[in-house]
Design a protein that fits this description.
By secondary structure, the protein is of the alpha/beta class. It contains 5 helices and 7 strands; from the N terminus they run E-H-E-E-E-H-E-H-E-H-H-E. It is globular.
Length: 159
Amino acid sequence: MSENPYRHMLLAVDFAPESEIVVERAVAMRDRFGARLTLLNVVEYVPPETELAGGAFMAEPVLPSDLDLERELVDVARKELDGLGERIGVPTEDRIVEFGPTGRSIEHVAKDLGVDLIIVGARDHTWLGNLFGSISRSLLRHEVCDLLAVRIGEQEDDD
């Protein structure tokens, strides 16, 4: 291959301990391709006044009425993202915290930055995940760029 297929990668992180494999894969790919790596954490907040009916949210997505809570969530995410960025060598300007729906926020940032590859973790589905769909499935539908969904969770075989 004469041209590097990945010059700028976006890693969406959630800071869960089991997601470390996703970070490891992203760092390996960054090093392999000599690419720029941008970290993204999306703070997704569902206001307490949002009602659940039959397992579905019945309110439009709104910003939380408590802006102090929003700021606190973003501040915590920023500290976690900065710690991760320092650990894996990602410059401050390539660390982004967004507030909003996860899939849409990842897509928005990827388009704005013109990334070549989005890297996300893919967990085993639960009933709630099956109801709303997975982030990786949502990103595949929008075809922003290539997508690497790294499997997270138990790797046990069912015998």
